[in-house]
Amino acid sequence: MSARILIAEDEVIIRMDLAEMLVAEGYDVIEQVGRGDLAVERTRELAPDLCILDVKMPGLDGLAAARIVVEEDLAAVVILTSFSQRELIGEAVDVGVGAYVVKPFQASDLVPAIEVALAGRAQLQALAGRADEAEQRLEQRKVIDRAKGTLMDAYGMGEHEAFRFLQTTAMSARSTMAEVATRIVDGTLRPNADASTD
Predict the structure, then answer these.
(1) Which end of the chain is more exposed for a tag (fewer CB within 10 A), N or C?
(2) pTM higher than 0.70 for the full model?
């Protein structure tokens, strides 16, 4: 599947040439706008994979639009500019732009920038997913530890016995240990006084 791209460039001729170049390279140009504020609005509505934003546009400049797109995690961003000034490059990096292309450009300049920006966003999303998973595992570990503490304090179980109770209860209930632990902690599940867990 080809990447879906939104173009925001206030110069109509450049915008049309850019769209033609991208289509020839196999990309799907889903929208073309001439203002930064419209770029943000249409990005929110259409969810493109990538936005190509010119720096100098009416409504909202390209870097301000890029900041919103990146902060809201809407799409990867490539900035187009007629300037290669260090402060613009630095600001683009600070915003989180995936690539920066100086006009005039050719497909051989643009395609690698697009692919790098898309790959960078994919890597960030993968890292965010792994961070979320790690946080979820940590929260599960905490609730299991609290449940073991509850079982040890309230029911006189040893640590191994409390862990084994959580494990066997989860298996017999076809549930996760974290779900059983949550029920122990909130008091909706209590072990039978005469139940043996070993």
Answers:
(1) N
(2) no
